[in-house]
Amino acid sequence: MTSFTETWPVRVYYEDTDHGGVVYYANYLKFMERARSEFLRSAGLELDHIESEFGVMFAVTQANVRYLVPARFNEMLNIESELVQMRGARIAFRQRIYRQLDGVLLTEGDIHLACIRRDGNVSRIPKAVRESLKSHLNKKEEYSS
Questions:
Q1: Which UniProt keywords apply (predicted)?
Q2: CB-CB contact of 86 with 123 (8 Å)
Q3: What confidence tens digit (pLDDT) does each residue in 75-104 have?
Q4: Which sequence positions are flagged as catalytic?
Q5: Which of 2, 86, 88, 118 has most Cβ atoms within 10 angstroms of its Cβ?
Q6: What are the domain boundaries of the chain?
Q7: Among candidates 43, 125, 35, which has minimal Cα distance to 85?
Q8: Any idea which fold 6-144 has?
Q9: Dihedral (Cα; 118, 124, 126, 130), 10-degree rounding
């Protein structure tokens, strides 16, 4: 089994925080979304090209997030993303957010996505996309064509 984790850095800006300087809970999901986009980019995939070439996109169907320690204004964070499942029309990521300064785990999430067509109906992940992601899948037994 190979292991591939993409790490994406982010700085917490004032706009990411509540009035107490703590990252607003929904913004962790935004950080994770950006990190998943960078994960796909590292696999040679661009979301806009997937949509224009194959007529599909990915929609979040489930987000299970666990908040452990708050991030604060001006901290540097690392968002780690792992692709842990790819089946039919579904893919799942495990993501973790760490504070760069001391490596403390702040937030972790399991995010599930469905491949859908422009009309909103579910579609199998295109073969070319599956092939690009296959080497980035951390649990080979989860892969099925």
A1: Hydrolase
A2: no
A3: 999 999 999 999 999 999 999 999 999 999
A4: 18
A5: 86
A6: 6-144
A7: 125
A8: Thiol Ester Dehydrase; Chain A (3.10.129)
A9: 130
